[in-house]
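Worked example 2:
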Amino acid sequence: MDPMTRLLSLTLAAAVGAAPLSAQGDGEPPPLNDRERAAHVLNRLAYGPRPGDIERVMEIGVEAWIEEQLTPSEDLGVRLEAKLERFETLGLTVAECSKFVLEGAPMGEDPESRRERRLMRRKPVDELMEAVPLRAALSERQLDEVMADFWRNHFNVSFTKGQAIWTQLPHYEASVVQAHLWGRFPDMLVASATHPAMLHYLDNHLSRKPPTEQQLKQIERRERQRTGSEQRGEEAAAIAAQRGLNENYARELLELHTLGVDNYYEQDDVIAVAEILTGWTFTQGRNASYEYVFRPNLHAEGDRKVLGKRLREDEEGGNAQGMELLEMLGEHKGTADFVAMKMVRYLVADEPPQDLVEEVAKTYRKTDGDIPSMVRTIIDSEEFWSRDHVGTKFKTPYEYLVSALRAVDADIQSLDRLEGYLRDMGQPVYHCDDPTGYYDTAYAWLDPGVMALRWQFATDLAAGKIRGVRIPDTLYDRIPSHVPPELWQHHLTRMILPGGAGERTRAALATVTSEYLAMHRNPDLYELGPRLVGLLLGSPEFQKQ
């Protein structure tokens, strides 16, 4: 292990999980000063500051910056909009994306045609996986991107479901996540419930009323007559029975999207919800629209009782009954409590303060689930600005990589190589098999193996080893030419670690600096700088927000 990696590993091993700022001294801690407030909002409501961002936020005022971020706008910034233009599938409907992939894939069976066909089929996957972190790194609408990541995990869907879902997810990102960021939670709930990607991911498009006993007997009899085998007849009936009601989406709708695990509902409610949502599917086929459709012939007719309330069959044969169910869940106290808890945990602390959770849930109920109002309640709270919660959230791999790109103001031509790092760290975009989505608390990511991968990314980024991404000279040019080499580390630390470096990180920086200066008569900032930047991006202080 080289000295840099050894020092870095010792620093991280000792400092990950350090006490919150308010616990690092005696007495009542003072409130955050202006610089600390600016750094805090850029770490919690953005993916970390770029060089100069803290000064810019201080200049216009933290409150003005927050208000700017909370005001809906389509202005993503010139840098980002220019880079998004090359993506061909992001603005397409599911039908358009399917047609684009089908018509663009060569039909030959020679090796080159097969390779091009595989690339074309993967194009929606590759473009979305690159576009999501690109937006997070470059967008001026940082709070939009922070909250988009929250909702992607709340209403999780995944490319891992199979190729059929690949052409569905770009439109899901646009029409469910991005389109409802600053709307009402109940509207986002309906948008997710009726999108082909969710219907496919949790198998609801296959859910139908179970066959009756008479139908099963007919199936068994026909197969026995056709094959002459009693066993084959029984097997056919058993398979037919399994192709009926599917509870996957019903369970996750209650458990993950609205009420929370084992809150208010029982197994009978799950079954009733599944029955209500039978026939909720989407059109498929070569010329299909790939949009939500209700199929009455697949629906389990009849009134259903859910959470103690009777939901009656409707004239449409079940579509309105399902919409009434979603409306009821969107208005439920349990949904307000669960969504509030998750939002506070995401923006404030892994152990969400209960008083604030209750306040946010109250806002949910007063405003019919208005998302901006809930976010404002959190930001306006004492808990959000408390030193007990500053610098205590541990970055997920996705947050870490994006914040590193922003910290060095990376010159980004392509982020296609980022997928490999995220995959190795366990958080590739839209690839979480588990319906829970990726976890946003420290315990899920404090793994020595994953930490080693973070250190590798830090050194690769600093050394310019990631294709399509480089640290511009302007980062180092911010250090005045008269500053002696012994002090370069302090200027870089101030740029990358606004909250300052701990004792071990400072010691590691000093060691690398002294070893370098001992071997070079004419120190070169552009040679030593990357080594120091690698240490800073891998430091325990940079792992937190």
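The two ends are 29 Å apart (CA to CA). DSSP finds 27 helices and six strands in the chain.
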